[in-house]
């Protein structure tokens, strides 16, 4: 609708629709909107890339530590199995089914597996722990084992099949899990030191 000013002069009404910019051309507002969305997507992508770049060293380091911890756990399981194979099925430790690598049972088992007292066959070769770092902790005499620490300076948890039924019932933070057809399993509580959380490192999964 146009407004008459007099003498047959008219002004376009503010509601007059804008003229097309050529046949088939999209409206200017729509083009600007698409450009804004495109810029926003690019900006979000850059922010995500920067965050991943900044965090990647930490993420990669924790992944490596978890992998190393898992390898030590598997080495310990293999050592237990090899001891059984070479000793008529006897376990390297007797008594409790579950124990840690820094308690009485765990220390006794580790000493058997590394070949103590001297002259016995060794089934386990792992790096020494220095100042709380991962590895085997030795007594002052440099020969007797005092424990085994994971990548975060905590002991491993070990469960052995002492009744030879091929079934292990693993209790982790009050929740039980049944593992079949394995002589032993080992797990670490992971970086947070709390068993039963997502960062646990297990030999059987």
Please count the helical segments: 2
| Spatial extent as radius of gyration | 34 Å
Main sheet characteristics: 4 strands, antiparallel
Specify the oligomeric state: single chain
Number of strands: 10
Instruction: Please tell me what the overall shape is.
Output: elongated
Uncertain residue ranges: none
The residue fraction in helices comes out at: 25-40%
Order of helices and strands: EEHEHEEEEEEE
Backbone structural class: alpha+beta
- Arrangement of strands in the largest sheet: 3-6-9-10
Tell me about this structure.
It is a single chain. By secondary structure, this protein is α+β, with helices and mostly antiparallel strands. The chain has helices at 28-86, 104-113; strands spanning 3-6, 9-11, 98-100, 135-138, 145-149, 157-160, 167-172, 175-180, 184-188, 201-202. The protein is elongated. The model has no long low-confidence stretch (mean pLDDT 82).
Please render the helix and strand layout as text:
Blueprint: E1 3-6, E2 9-11, H1 28-86, E3 98-100, H2 104-113, E4 135-138, E5 145-149, E6 157-160, E7 167-172, E8 175-180, E9 184-188, E10 201-202
Antiparallel strand pairs: 1-2, 3-6, 4-5, 6-9, 7-8, 9-10
State the gist of this model.
By secondary structure, this protein is an alpha+beta fold.
């Amino acid at each position: 609708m146009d407004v008459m000013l007099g003498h047959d002069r008219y002004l376009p009404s503010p509601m007059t629709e804008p003229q097309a910019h050529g046949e088939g051309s999209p409206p200017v507002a729509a083009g600007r909107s698409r450009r804004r969305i495109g810029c926003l997507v690019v900006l979000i992508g850059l922010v995500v890339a920067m965050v991943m770049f900044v965090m990647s060293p930490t993420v990669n380091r924790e992944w490596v530590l978890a992998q190393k911890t898992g390898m030590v756990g598997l080495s310990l399981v293999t050592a237990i199995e090899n001891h059984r194979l070479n000793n008529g099925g006897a376990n390297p430790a007797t008594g409790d089914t579950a124990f840690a690598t820094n308690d009485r049972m765990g220390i006794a088992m580790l000493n058997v597996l590394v070949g103590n007292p001297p002259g016995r066959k060794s089934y386990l070769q792992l790096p020494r722990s220095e100042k709380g770092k991962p590895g085997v902790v030795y007594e002052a005499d440099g020969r007797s084992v005092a424990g085994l620490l994971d990548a975060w300076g905590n002991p491993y948890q070990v469960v052995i099949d002492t009744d030879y039924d091929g079934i292990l019932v693993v209790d982790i933070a009050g929740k039980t899990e049944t593992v079949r057809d394995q002589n032993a399993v080992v797990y670490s509580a992971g970086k947070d030191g709390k068993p039963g959380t997502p960062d646990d490192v297990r030999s059987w999964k």
